Structure of Diguanylate cyclase:
Amino acid sequence: MARPFLVCLPGSSNPKHPGLRMKRSKTPPAACEEQVRQRVRQHAALFREGDDPVAFWESLCLELADCETAECPPPETRQARMQTLFMSLRTPVLLLNADFEVEVMNPAAVALVEGDRMDAWAEGTHVPVPLAELAPWLAAPLEDHRQESSEAEACRMGVAVSQKHGERHYNVSVSRTSDFSDRHDGFAVVLDDITERVEGERQLAEERNRVAHYLDVVGSMVFALDAAGRVTMVNRTACRVLGYEERALLDRDWVDALVPDEQRDEVRDCLYMIFSGQLEDEDERFHYVTTREGEHRLVQWQGKLLTNEGGLPVGLLLSGTDVTERRAIEEALAEKELWLRNTFVALGEAVLILTPDMKILDANPAAETMFGMTNEELDGLPVGDLHVNPAHYDDFLARARSAFEAGERAVFELPLKRRSGVIFPADHSVSIIDGDDGTTLGVVNVIRDISDRKHAEAELRRSEEKFRRIFESIEEGYMVTDLEGTIMMVNPATCRILQYEAGELVGRSIDSLYRIAEERGGFRKTLEAEGTIRSRQMNALRKDGTTIVIEANAHLVRNHRGEPVAMEGTFRDITRRIEAEKVLREREKQYRAFFENNHAIMLLTDPKTEGIIDANPAASDFYGYPVEVMRTMSMSQINGLSRDEMFEEMRRSMDEGRTYFVVKHLLAGGEVRDVEVYSGPIMVQGVQRLYSVIHDVTQRIRLEQDMKRLATTDALTGANNRHQFFSQAAHEVARAKRYDNPLSVIMLDIDYFKSINDTYGHHAGDVVLKVFSETARTALRVNDVFGRLGGEEFAALLPQTGLEEGLEVAERLRAAFAALSVRVDEAVISFTVSLGVTQVRASDRDMEEVLNRADEALYRAKRMGRNRVVKG
């Protein structure tokens, strides 16, 4: 009976061997030997690494089938060929019987097995040997599989073998074999050596683990994107920062998932340009990403383009660092630096930044004004040059060094000198600037001109002395007590009125000085309730027990928190006044006559309501109101100053130690007059009033203003005189250079002005100059500076104006002058003007250099025919 075999034909679907179709047959196909060889070659060409060698080997069994043609080789030949093929296979193959005994194995398998029975194989006996004796490492997993699978179906498994050259790994394929009656009679075992593949996979896994560990512990966010921009890998840092799970980001479009809507187009364009090679992939870029909670975070991204072996881009590796807080800190620092710079520039006190060797590195505008020098002049100047003499500078250094060694800021007074040589008192605050490493970077010297303060201190000392004299010499008693009524201080008038020594009163209770207990209680309650008492009449006891009538004023003294801490007040003995009131009333008519007949302007007002109680005829004549009308008016109706201006004048009066106020009063016809007001309190029928004597000083103040104007203004034309023009010009040039602003200068000269004087007379020339000046000032802006430099030569300074704009202004002026006609008596005079225009340059050292350039342009205009504008 012929043994069954597999016939493998090309062109069918076989799950293990595509391109082969398999059928079982008991009758061999009719084919000659050449056909068999051709079929074997076809099968061999289809064999690939990883295919099942057993299946491939069995497919060749068509050579063992009985051949229906006479041309088929004899069985011995076919068996020999099959034996050669089996023995030459490099893949180990073992044939087992149903008892798991090895019946047949090729040399490749012999090299793997071990045991005493190998000698029999070597002698060619080929007695079946249990697999457990030859290859226990293979028998155990096969036995486990047979127990787990009762049907003992074909299977694949992995087996590791420890050999003297190291561990080897095999992929074991096991399939059943059958006899010619199709009964299961054993197993075919094929071992495919996969050691290199396993080792490669192990190394790849280790490498992946190392990379994954690095990416997970690195502080940056890491994404791997494919060529379509989808996320193929994300590390833990990115998940933690963005609040996502890893699976929520994988395989998602990176831009759609994380980039805010308003930046998506920009980022997509950037990715496209990186993939297409139009941008460097390693350049750093900044853009926002959105967390899972919707928060926008600014990230600094750096990418690395991933390419295949052919250099084609296959993906992008992105590394991002969250710089949201850092950027916020940088912006805050920039804002703070800008604020500090603006503060430095705008500070009212002079500030000098000094190098460690005490040279000026920078100065604010207040310092420029204080010393009368520009920033450029101060830059690099030894600060010792600003001190009065070397001894003062040594004192400055010694005080600063002493404070620095103590770790403190140096604060002291030391005079300085201006560029003009004027010495002025100054307060110094000197601080050291240390770097992060403790090295000295420089010194800050803040300077305050205390000339006014020194003057005020002197005035205050004089004022204090005056008030001390007043305190000691006033007729009113002055007394300070604590809240319990214990006397703490009295003036000499108190001792004189009450006939006590000061030592007898200080420390004594004020209650012992009241004559009537009810008055004492009422006075205390009123003071505690209202905080102040005015003109309270009471009966007081002198030391000798006699009673006097006093008029007292008192108020609570409060600390900085507004809490009452003491009581103070003044009082006067009005005993005789009360007795003399009758006499005073009799004399009131006399005083009334004095008030009404005085030529000085006098007003009697209520200090509480500011209402005018009385006015003398001189006041009526001055203000233009009848006396009866003035008695119904308030001071606010004639006061021409606002409340703030009035308070400011009161403050100036106190600072200057004046006994009068300089204010503006409104007359009935609307005219405003400058007046000096001398005021003082008086008692009228027991009520305090304010008595004011007013002097009209309008003419004097106008004369003072005229004198100031004459000092800065050209008397004929009303333009700035030469000194004032150069003073303002120097300031404008310095400011233009400091802030890099354009500044144009125009020189103007009346053509043939001498002929106007010669023809029409100097009076006509003066009229022409006046009209010329008025026309120029009208055409120029308010902040433009216009001045007469001499004769018929004038100049104009145009801040914030470039050269081209300056030429346009000059042309408008030229046209305006050319259109003028000046009438002087019967003559009508026309004239033209030549103008030279230039712009201040960074190289200009001073205003004279700028004016010389404009003057040269002016004279070129003269030489070119006059009545024209020339650029210089």
